[in-house]
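Retro notes
What went well: the complex prediction finally ran end to end.
Inputs used:
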Amino acid sequence: MQTVPGPDIAQRERRERLAARVRSVAPSGIRRFFDLIQTMDDVISLGVGEPDFTTPWHIREAAIYSLERGYTMYTSNYGLLELRRALAEHLARRYGVVYDPQDELLITFGVSEGLDLAMRAILDPGDEVMIPDPGYVSYAPCVTFAGGVVRPVPTSSENRFHPRASDFAERITAQTKAVLLGYPNNPTGAAPSRETLLAIARIVAEYDLIAVSDEIYDRLIYGREHVCFASLPEMRERTILLGGFSKAYAMTGWRVGYVAAPRDLMEGVLKIHQYTALCAPITSQMAALEALRNGEPAVQSMVEEYDRRRRVIVKGLNDIGLTCHEPDGAFYAFPSTEAVGQSDEEFAERLLLEEHVAVVPGSAFGTCGRNHVRCCYATSLPQIEEALGRIEAYVKRKRKT
Ligand code: PLP
């Protein structure tokens, strides 16, 4: 068969192979560090935001047993009904927020998928999303990939990186569609008070916005309550709640999480999930069910251990002279690098090369993260103590020069 080129083909300009919105997102600032770490020995990593615990045995055992019983098939697009029922009970019991397990809860490939689904479900091209800065590295790219526009809302060390409602109000435009909240926060550990969240909720209601609330660290909170955004007045109908199993149950590799949303929003979220992911892996869903049913003692003991480490690392960093506020939740300390007169990037790079301690530059999480580094304390106390010793040696040396 002969192919005859159409008249316009010769005139066609060379087209970019990747879409403009994909090209517009810079590669992750963290990746370069992790590539560097791979080439080095004896590195203590306070870099990766991942529990150092293995998934509790009873959870792994439940998954193994489900395989033995032959659970190897697709589930409903929403996920296993038994798991959704357990999740509905869990959310009602912990936060007093009620979702119908039939069509208001969806099991996903972690919060990562939930975030992408939420953004694609609600954004039209040019819609703006307000995101506190600094924030988790995936937030802004997910908005951009979905065709939206990111409006950073600055937070600062003066306020322990807690957001202020007035900063949201000042940034609202005719295009504002949503706020994307991530509390307790990665990288700052901030968990705002109920009053602050209520003030943000009033803005969400007043301007008819949608709140996407990533609460993956809800269980990792120290000496204060976690406020579920959807539980605030009028917020259940306006919130897409994202939650997960990765952090609380040390289940990062299982890739399982959930979306909770009112029916109309869930309809859109589900549509994308059913055509692009079909369903979360059944083995992981079985594990998640066991986690919800019997995982509480393990969560409690992991949280106690994180809290112990949190106190050691925060005190240690402050003693060394790197000013560090007390994180309310998650497992990150976020000290300032100003005392050594170095930018976060320079500090992180020199510390890695000279002392073999990996931390993440704060600017990888947004411009307001500048001159801070994220130190993840989801690693053993002896490792944290060794890392503090090395950081101290580094800081002393830099202060002399
Ligand atoms: N949200 C935040 C704030 C995170 O820190 C992470 C992982 O580090 C995720 C979401 C991704 O979670 P998941 O493993 O459930 O996809």
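What we learned: The radius of gyration is 22 Å.
What to try next: split runs per interface for comparison.
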